Amino acid sequence: MMRDFEGKDGIMQFGGMSAVEIAERFGTPIYVTDEQIVRENYRRVYEAFSRFMETEIHYACKANTNLAILRILEQEGSCIDAVSIGEVLTCLKAGFSPERIMYTGVNVSDKELKEVVDTGCRINIDSESELERLSEILGDKRKGFPISFRVTPGVSSGHGTKVMTGGKGSKFGIPYNRVMDTYARAKELGYDIKGIHAHTGSGGNTTDPFIEVVEVLIELTNRLKDELDIHLEFIDFGGGLGVPYKPQEEECDVNELGAEITDMILEETDVKKVCLEPGRYIVCDSTILLSKINDVKDAGPKRYVGIDAGFNVLIRPSFYDSYHHVALANKFNKACVAKYEVVGPICESGDYIAHDRILPDPKEGDILCVYNAGAYGFSMSSRYNSRPLCAEVLVNDGKAELIREAETMDDLWKHQIIPERLR
Ligand code: LLP
Fold this sequence. Notes:
24% strand, Lyase, Ornithine Decarboxylase, Chain A, domain 1, globular, 8-stranded parallel barrel, 9-stranded mixed sheet, 2 domains, alpha/beta, TIM Barrel, binds ligand LLP
């Protein structure tokens, strides 16, 4: 079931506080994260696997790179899946040691690869070209340098075609039929080959693809041992664990998944460590987006609720047609009367947050809460229509703290230059 929150006298409560008070104190639109939920989610998924075998959770920080949230996960003992030098540097700044960060890029430039090498973090290679270019960068230092490879498993999953990554012909990973040759080449070059990795896609609602991808990784692991005498330390089956976005949607049983996957690895290989890269699972339901209703319009066949957050703040509905549950925080659990389109202030007809939702008599000034906003919410937000990025707040046990200030117009102008001749 989707995570829901308590109401007290018609007011939504979040992290032991009134959501309406948070909106009033910090302004809207605003992302609000409950620290305890981040911790609970991390512990649940870690324990589901670690009770059976050595486990590393590589939090896929693309979901949410706020430094305070990264600090929480650093304290929990998490490792990191980073996709860019920017993410690597952000995680270092948040206090992660380089050994706890694994960089998996795609279409990586030489410049970025050099910078990543300089940080000392772990490198997971996505292509044969990247392997050769890394070898040039390392020179003599490549002997004994630890690496692993992302492979294309031929298994794909996800909430939509835009986020499916593991199918045959994908731009990601070493193509299945090149895997053996690539590992052989890495061995010849003298690398210390640590593991194998694949990612099927993001946010699907079944666990079958995880079983399928682990089967592929196990088969490859055993072939590497038998055919090339390469003994891997870890199998990393990627991220993609879905979470329920709709009230009645079922959640994925991570305990069952943990039992099944660790059993497969322990039974069928000599590998001692499993890694996984959940992003959404750890932060999605920890965060709500609070917005204010600016405008209510009856447009004949449709009624509109216009809020102060559009696809500049949360792009997932417009971009993926993703469902996000919404509720009025100041009329929480009140009887609902009519259906509305919940839309933002961006000048495009595709700018919407929710279609066709029954709401309790929404009025200007009401606080509309968007659920499940912690993953790919702020991290995909933009300044489109010259709207500065919004603020973020962390709530813990009834106390709220700002963890990102809202940008100002000066931030938007800061890096722009009007050439002298145009002044
Ligand atoms: N590992 C790799 C190699 C990935 O590419 C991704 C996500 C993850 C892990 C984490 O996936 P997660 O556990 O969060 O599903 N912006 C989209 C999701 C894009 C995911 C891209 N890769 C969305 O808003 O749904």
